[in-house]
Structure to design on (254 residues):
């Protein structure tokens, strides 16, 4: 499927670690934008889910980060970069059920070890890079 | 069925966004894990949970759920109520536990 947009749409959002109150803001705005463009419902839900999980990870684990996305006629690309602790063992972190979230975050219903797997499942291309002590970058592409 | 019918059948208390009572309910999902709901809920599901904090609004909105039923007589945070109105998410409460609510809704939707 190709969508009818004249220019690439780009947005970026700043994410602040620990700011649970604004969690989901970037994803809700992305969802609105994709709905406006008239994308398929299923694609919008996949994009919203992947983006929200990425947002949550920055808010739970990092000091700060950026979420950027751009929409072309063929795909949506989301990049999330953070200044956080980094991930020591990416393979382990990708396993469903594995989490390093503190108890108070788990009490909120987060930290079930589903975030990264959810992002991967909902993307057509999923890349993750991490340097311990510096931060993590996630790139997700969803084809239309 | 309409959310309004569920509210009537289960005597739920509607806390936010009454316009949402016209939403269709085609299924339900019971979970207190937000990523689980993000992964497995379907469009127009009614979400049954004990979580009451702000993030449930984003979950319901992003997954296009028909509404949230908060069980076990839990008080909903004031900021959650405000956000629900902004994001047009209908929150309902009940003293019933999740098992009972789910069972009743399952019967109604069958």
């Amino acid at each position: 499927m190709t969508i009818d947009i004249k220019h690439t749409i780009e947005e970026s959002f700043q994410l602040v670690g620990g700011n649970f109150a604004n969690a989901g803001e970037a994803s809700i705005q992305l969802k609105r934008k994709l709905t406006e463009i008239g994308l398929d419902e299923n694609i919008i839900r996949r994009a919203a889910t992947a983006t929200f999980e990425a947002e949550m990870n920055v808010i739970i684990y990092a000091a700060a980060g950026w979420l950027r996305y751009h929409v072309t006629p063929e795909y949506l690309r989301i990049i999330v970069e953070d200044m956080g602790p980094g991930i020591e063992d990416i393979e382990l972190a990708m396993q469903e059920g594995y989490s390093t979230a503190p108890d108070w975050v788990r009490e909120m219903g987060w930290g079930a070890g589903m975030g990264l797997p959810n992002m991967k499942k909902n993307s057509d291309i999923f890349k993750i890079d991490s340097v311990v002590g510096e931060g993590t970058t996630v790139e997700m592409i969803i084809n239309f | 069925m309409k959310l309004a019918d569920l509210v009537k059948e289960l005597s739920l208390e509607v806390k936010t966004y009454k316009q949402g009572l016209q939403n269709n309910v085609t299924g339900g999902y019971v979970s207190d894990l937000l990523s689980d709901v993000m992964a497995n809920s379907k469009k127009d599901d009614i979400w049954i949970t004990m979580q009451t904090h702000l993030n449930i609004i984003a979950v319901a909105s992003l997954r296009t759920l028909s509404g949230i039923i908060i069980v076990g007589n839990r008080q909903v945070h004031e900021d959650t109520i405000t956000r629900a109105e902004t994001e047009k998410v209908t929150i309902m409460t009940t003293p019933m536990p999740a098992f009972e609510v789910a069972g009743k809704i399952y019967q109604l939707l069958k």
Remarks:
- Chain B touches chain A through 22 residues (CB under 8 Å).
- DSSP finds five helices and five strands in chain B.
- The mean pLDDT of chain B is 97.
